[in-house]
Each structure stands twice: as C-alpha cells, then as structure tokens.
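Example complex used in Figure S2.
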Amino acid sequence: MAADVTSVPVEETAGPGTGSSRSGYVRYVGGKLGGAVVSLLAVLVTGFFLFRLIPGDPVKTMTGGRPISTAQLAEYRREFGLDLPLWEQFTDYCGKALTGDLGTSYQFRAPVIDKISEALPNTLLLTGTAFVLYTALGMFLGTRSAWRNGSLSDRFNTGLALTLYSVPSFWLGLLLIIVFSVGVGPIPGLFPTGGMESGDKEGFAYVLDVAHHLVLPVVTLVAVEYGQTLLVTRSALLDEMGSDYLTTARAKGLRDDLVRRRHAVPNALLPTVTLVFVNLGRTVAGVILVETVFSWPGLGGLFYQALSVPDLPLVQGLFLFFAAAVIVMNTLADLVYPLLDPRVGR
Amino acid sequence: MTTPTAPLLSAQGLHVAFPGRRGGAPARAVDGVDLDIRPGEVVALVGESGCGKTTLARSLLGLVPPTGGRVTFDGKPLQYSSRALKAYRRRVQLVLQDPSGSLNPRHTVYDAVAEGLRIHGGVSDEQAVVARALSRAGLRPPERFFLRYPHELSGGQRQRVVIAGALVLEPELLVADEPVASLDASVRGEILALLLRLRTELGLAALVVTHDLGLAWNIADRVAVMYLGRIVETGDAERVLTAPQHPYTQALLSVLPEAPGDPVVLSGEPPDPSRIPSGCRFRVRCQILASGEAERAGVAHRCRTEDLEVLGGGGEAQVACHWARVPDPAV
Amino acid sequence: MTLLEVRNLEVTYPGGVAAVRGVDLSLTAGQKVGVAGESGSGKSTLALALLRLLPPGTRVSGEILLNGEDVLTMRWGRVRAVRWAGASIVFQGAMHSLNPVHRIGDQIAEPVLLHQGATAAQARRRAGELLEQAGLPAARASAYPHELSGGQRQRVMIAMALACDPQLIIADEPTTALDVMIQAQILGLIQGLVTDQDVGLIMISHDLAVLADSCDRLVIMYAGRVIEEGPAQQVYENALHPYGQALSASFPHIGDPASRFAPRGLAGDPPDPSALPSGCAFHPRCAEALEGCATEDQFLREAGRGRRAACVHVPVGVVGVAARDSSVPEQAADVTELAVGTGPAVEVAQSAGPGGSSGPGGRDEQGRPGGSAGPVERVGSARHAGPTDPARSAGPTGPAEATGPAEPAERATPAGPAEPAERATPAGPAEPAEPAGRATPAGPAGPAGPAGPVEGMTTGRAAGRAEGSDSGTAAARAESPGHPGTGHPSPSPGPGPGPGPENTPDPAAPPHDTRSPS
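Predicted assembly (1195 residues):
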C-alpha cells in the first residue's frame, strides 16, 4: 500500500484558528464585554422607568400620611428632584448613577450607596459562606453520584437533594429556628433566633458570636441550594462518562481515580462553571427570605424594608446593584470559560 | 447516455460562496459548476469531504441560494420565493445520509411518510398513497409499518422510510446525499438496488452525492468528480471509473483496496476553499506535475498559471486537466 | 511465537446481552489480523475486552493470553501496566477519542510519563518524535484536537499508540469516516510502522476490502462469533461462509461488470445481539439455509489450510470422520489444498484476471470444487435460489448465459493450472465448453476422483454466478437448475462417494463442497 507514494509538498492545512487564536480571544472578550455594557445600560434605563410605575406619591409616602403644608411638600419635591420634568430626572439619574451616586433614601435620609455598603459585608459573610459550602458539597456529591450512577448512594443523594431543593427556604429556616433555637422536647435551644451578633462581645469572642449566629442561616441556604449544583454536576458528568476519550485514558493504563480527576471531571465541570458564576452573582444579591427570617442585617433585609415603604431610590439602587452583580458575574463566567475549554471563543 | 433529451435539472455556471471567517476571503464552496441531470438518469457526484459536493446538492435543491449562475428545472429557472420553492420541492426530493437524524423519533412511520402529503395537500386517499410509497420502498406489507416508531426499525428500514417519504409525492428527481454511508455493508446493496429499481420502474432520476467510488460503479450512469468546488472530470461511469483521465481521479481510484497497480497516495489534504490555488486548482497536489510528467508534456507552465474552463454539464466525457488534454499525453 | 492467544472468549454485558460468544484468535509478532464485522457483530467489544476495558458488571470468560499471561486473571495493577505498554489501542480518532481540553502533546506524553517514568521534558521530546513519526510536525504538539482535521487526529491517535513501544496494537476502525485519500495515507502509515517495529496488529473494521488489502489474516465476525477465518485475500475473494460471501460481494470491484448496476447485499438486517435467532444466528438471512439451521448451532470447522468456517455446508459429518482417518493419502491432501484455493493454482487464477471482471465467480468455484467432495446432498438449487437479488436480474441478458452451465466450469478452471479464470472477463464464459477437462485441474493435484464432482459443483455454482455477474440473467439462473446434469451434478452422485473419502483425509480441508455455488 505504501509503495510508490507520490508525495507532493503541501502546505499543512492549518486547523481553524491556530495563528489567529490570540486575536480570536481578544475579539471574543471584546464581544462579551460589549454585551455586558449594553445589558447594564438596559438595566439602568429599566430601573428608572420601572419604579416610576409604582403607584402612590413618593413624597406622601415619605411623610407617612402626616398632614403637611404645601410649602413643605414642594420643599421635599425639590430636595429629591421630583419637581423636574421626567426627562430631566432621567438624565440626572443616569449621570449620577454612572458616578456611583444612587440617590438618597427617603426612609433613612441617607445616601443609598451608604446603606448598601453598610449591609453588603453582612450579606457577603452569610451568602459567601453558604456559597462556598453548597458549591463544594454539590460538586463533590454530584461527581460521586455520577461515578456510581444507579447505586444506592446515588439514589439517596439525588433524592435528598431534590427534596431539599424543593423546600421553601423560609419554611426550612423557621423550622430550624423552632427546633434549634427555641428548642423542642429534649433538644435545647442551641442557636440564637436571629440577628448577627449579641452586641456585648469584643475581639475573638465577637468572632465566635457572629459564627454562632451564622450557623442556622447558612445551614438553611446550603440545604436549599446544594441540590441544584449536585444535579447539574451529576448530569454533566454522566454525559461525559460515555465519552470515547475516557476509554482512551483507561486504555493508557491510568488508574480510575486519575481518569476521573484528570479527564472526566474537568470536562464535566465546564457546564457547571456557568451555574457557579450565576450563583456567585446571586450571592451579592443576598437572600431576601432567609435574611428576613433570621433578621440578618444584610442587603436582603434592606431590600425588604425598602419595598415595604416603598423607598423608591433605595429600591431602585438595590435593583441596579443586584442586576449589575449578576451581569458582571455572568460576564466573568464567559471570560473564564475559554481558558477552561479551548474549543470556545477562538 | 449522451442522449439529447432535455435535462430535467441543470446547473449553469453555479457559484456558491460563504463569507470568510472574521473577514477573511470568502470560501468558494462551489466555484463554477455546470451539471445536467436528464430524466431517468442516475448521476453520481463524487469527491472528498470539503470539495463542495454537498453544497452543490443543497444549492440544486434551492436550500442555498447561489451567488452566481443559475439552476433550471424542466427548462425554467428556479424561483426562490417560498411558494415556488415549495412547488419545486414536490418534484425534487432530498434523501439524507443519516436516517436516524432525519426522522422525528416521536412520529410514526405513517406520519413521517404522510408529512409531505400534508404539507402539499390535496390528497384524497392518504392512506393508500402512503401504503404505496412504503411498499415501493420495500417495506411490505406497508400496514405493518404504519404505527411503528423509528427506534423500532433497523437502520436499513429507517432509510427505506426516508425514501418512502420522498417517494410519496411522486417526484421526478431524488437528490441523495451519501444515502448508504451510515448503513452496514450488507444492507447497503439492498438500498442501492432499491434506488436502481425506482429508476427502472418509475423513471426516477437521481443525483447521488458520495465519496464512495464503488457506489458510483454500482448504480450511476454518469459520474462527475468534484475537487475544490469544480467538477474536474465527468462522463460515462464506465469510462471515468475504468479509464480516468484526470490525475485526481486516477489517484482516487488507485488507492481503492483492490485497485491494480501502485497506489498514488496524495499527501496532505485539499486546500481550504477560501484559498483556491491559482492556475489549475489541483496543481499543488498533482502527482503528474510533481513527477515532472507535466513538464515533459510541455504543459507545466500552463498548469501553474492557467485555470481551466468550467466543464460542460452534458453527458460527454470531459476532463479539466491541461496534461490530459495533450494529444498524446506524456507517453 | 504467539503474541496474543484468545481462547473461547465470551462477553456478556450487564443487561444480559451476549456480545461475544466464544471467540478464538491468535496472533504472532509482526502479524496483521483483520477482524471484520457489522454493527452488533461484537468486534468492538472484542477490542475492549482484550484490555479489560469493558464497563463494570460485564461478564467475561475464556482466556486472553498476552505473551502467555492471562489478561483476564491479572491483578488490576498488572492490567494497568500492560495497557498501552504491552498493547495499545488506536480508536476511531475522528472526533471523540481525544480529550478535547488537553493539548495533544500532553495526551501523547501522558502514557510515557505513566509507564516509563520519564521526566516531563523527556516526555515532551518523545511526544514530538512520535508526532513526526506519524507524519505531523512536532510543533503541533501544542494544538488542541479541535484544531486538527480528522486525518491529523487519527495520526495523533497513532502517535499516541506507539508511545510506549507496545508489542500489540489494536486498531478499532482506524479509518472510518475518513476520505479515501486520507484513509490511504493512514493505512500506509500504520503498515509502515507495524513493519518497522515488528509489532502485532489487530485491525477491526467494517470494511472487508480494506482489511483484505492490509492484513495477513482475516477473521469475519457475525453475532458475536467468528464465522470464518483464513488468509486475508483468500477469505475476501473466496469466502466459504455464505455471510462472508455476501459481505465481500457487497464491496463492488470497480471495473467488474458483475457489479455494474448490480449492487449486492443481504436481505434483512444484522441481528440484534439481545435477541439472537436460534440455531445458526445467520440462518434468517441465509439463502442456503437448510431446515436444520434454525435449530442447530454451527461452530467453526476446519476448511482447508489455515481456514475455518462455521457453516453446515462446510461439512464435518462424513468428511470429518473420514478426515480423522490416519491413513490420509497425500494426494488427497493436495486436492484439498487446491480446493481451498491456497495452492498455486489459485494464484494463477488471481493474477490471471487481466480482464478484471468477475472475480467472484471464478474464485469461489475453485475453492469449492476441490472441496466439492462431500456433502452431497444438498442444495445446489438452494444456492441458486440465493441470488434472488433483484438487481441481478436487471442486467441485460447476454448470450453468455446460455452457456451458463458450461462456462461456469470454465471458470472453475481457475483452479486449473493455466487458466486465469478467476478474474476472467465475461468473455471468458464464452469459451465454455470443457468443463471436464478443465475441471481436472483440480484433479491433477489430486486423484482424479474429485474431478468429477468438482466440475459438477463448479458448474452449478458458476451458473449461479454467471448470471449475476456477467449480465447473464435470470435466465441463466433458471437454467442452471435445469441442467441437473451439468449444473448440479455435484450435489448428487459424483461427489458423494468418490471424492468424499479422498478428500476427507485431510482434516484441514474438509470439503466445503456443496457450498460452492453461491
């Protein structure tokens, strides 16, 4: 067969995108960033008009229905810029938003941005801790489940995850408070019912105190959230497990766990990456129900307070902040993805 | 085969180009093709992947608008309005390679076959028509297959269902893209025999797109060999396959397992259709040019600089090669 | 020495599907064995079983001796050590056999690091060398699989397979989905490497023609069993099992008028391994099935030098018994040989074929004729019935067919020393005539005895073929039965007695007689 092979020099057909892969990535990043900016602007615009649709006169809301003089009313209107035509209000709002000024809260009479930065660390402490735990737990159990697909532990894990995933978080939170804070029967009340600190501790004791307060809300969040990560990881890995390249890897003589760690899991985690980043975005947004149930002084609680007034600038500011966080995280996911998967974005 | 019958389907100077990646040169997938298919004729379009044969077939079906040249059917230029195309596709049917992919897994065989009828409407006795198409496609008795789902059928049976779906509208031409490539070898023969029988019994013409020269030998009247967007050799199947003139055809035939003589294995892969070489498009891989034979025949310069004209679409044997056209080539 | 010896391998998947049902296979260093089969034949399962790569829960029994060591009873640690270093696999690399997110250089280096304890730099250098050996520039090591074409990916797979200098390479559909030219490049590459490094090669493919061209021996699998094996060209050109015959006929020979406008195949579909037919798994698709085939399983039996086939038409019965007879006359043995097509005669026949046409017709005949010995009963007619293929009848009827019966004999001649018959063109048939005389060729080798039957048989089958092949047609077919004298003689009288005994002697060559036609 090999006889008389007429060989003609030919330019090697370069596969798609060899030389151009760098410029390809730059182009890809540019596209993703551009998309993110457009989304942010859209959120900005939506945020403004959406909240003008809320019924009720904001100034009257502010005064809580107390009788008030017309002069005072006008004064308030001027103070919050509500006397200007809608168009001017909009340009004013945009200009300020772009410089980080989100207006002044009616309710607290303080800059929205200050309120947000006050509550943000508390939220990050709670949801960040939960995020790390449920992501790790979900990925670990998801990988194990898929690798032992169909086994008893797989069925148990998936079943439990699904059940917890469908439990309302506030209900679970209240249940935990009843059982572990209030105490039921022989179980003593082990944890505080709410808040972030007892207020009388200093130094290391303070840290322990906060951690003590953190336990129940974090458990609630992890229980409710890990299921999603588990299920996504599991199905991604199952999809990957039929792949021929895993057979190749085994045929090379790699140990099973190496095949899994080096070949299967990294590929299977690719679809999970997007989910993780979206969750990360939601972390910033706080968890309204859980924070409320546990009286946690975070963004979720703040949002709840703002809505119940309603405190227009605060609602609007939080909305912008939450949306921006999700958009930024998604964009980040897009940017990281090609570094993990060479097939994307070149 | 060179009967002067008017062609049923004809491509004239057909070009199809796709925009280049990231502003690069456009990919000239089909770069000037004339091709006629006469009623009742089976034409095999052969070539390696990426040579443009599938794009050409899709363009003949009106699925890809040409960027140059035109397609005529039954003497009239193809119209690209959706209504005209619908009428056209009643007369020209497509059969794809992978029957599993072209059948909806949730439709019964009956639905799959009747779908064409329902789209085009106006059939009083649907059931009888479907039954006839199925039995023509070799699924007998047809009633037994009506309510089966694709997953209950074997690969060969699925391809028969696809063919029945094409036959149900009583087309005049089938365009089959690698119709047996996904089937087991022992099953292929039966499907090919079916295509031949349809030609004999119904006078159905067919354009069979394939990379398999043996298949062309099995069923085609005429063969057109495509390379980088052009037909480089065409003619009667016997002639092209047993006495190939173009170095490319010669090489393709020489590497078949039981081909006589030494195989001529071309190195590398066909160039990208966005970078078609100047001169003869095959020159960079041409064994005749590389071995100096073209030089001896005195055509090497032309090979490097002079593109060849588009071959006519008729039945006559033609070859797009400077060397092969030298009266007594190279001896 | 034997590099790989597989004995009675059986593989049953967890769902109870018996994918491999008793396969024997052996391979020496430097030998190339082709395993052909269609979907569900168990060929890929066989490949995976050789390195114990089957999913957990799969039951595997039998023995797989790699250099005398049974892979099936090794500890896992040993299995992993044997994988790739002892035997590597080239999977169909078109797309999915390479990890999409690792650079190809790393993937090639991986087994080097693992088995040879090389440093990262050594492994990288080795990967570069291997790539160049496989015809790719070493610089491509930094590419990802999706940046390569199908042919290039296959080269990477081959480079990877060579990484640890294995003694055995298993290539599973190495050229499927590649264009003919790329396929030729890859096959050339594999051939060259196998020859240079003197490794054993098992090449698994659905493409019988490619295997016949590139391997020394050929094994045909059907429904989890080997149904025929022997020297590659012989099996391809002169299969003994009806399935082998049909499979090789489904690869058209360009230039062979017999296959022009006459695609051949088999009615029905490859069997579903989870619902195999009773008896001989092939019987529902077999044109020559006897009543008993539906109930009686068939196993491989010796069918001449180095050949075995699992068909009732390759008799063990009478002949077999005789075969065991120690007093084997030598001539008989010779006869068999001829019959089998191993003999020089065959070669003549093959080379003869300038005309290039009707390969099939010629070939079988001759194989059979010798074998014709036996069996006796059956089937001439059944076989003819075989060719039901409509396509065949389509061919224009030629005068040739008139001669049908006679000419076949002629073709048979191929066996005969001189006559090229094998590849003889349609024209060949024209010269029909002396069946007897020519047939004799078989005779010469052996005692005249066989001759009689031989030609009978030949004729019979030739007739069958003739029509198929040279445009002879239905007519021819119809005819053959008609001429019992000529056409079918074999089955009946002649062969029975005379040859039977004689051939029998050689166990190796049990007369596959009857089956000649087809």
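The two ends of chain C are 37 Å apart (CA to CA). The CA atoms of residues 64 and 72 of chain C lie 6 Å apart.
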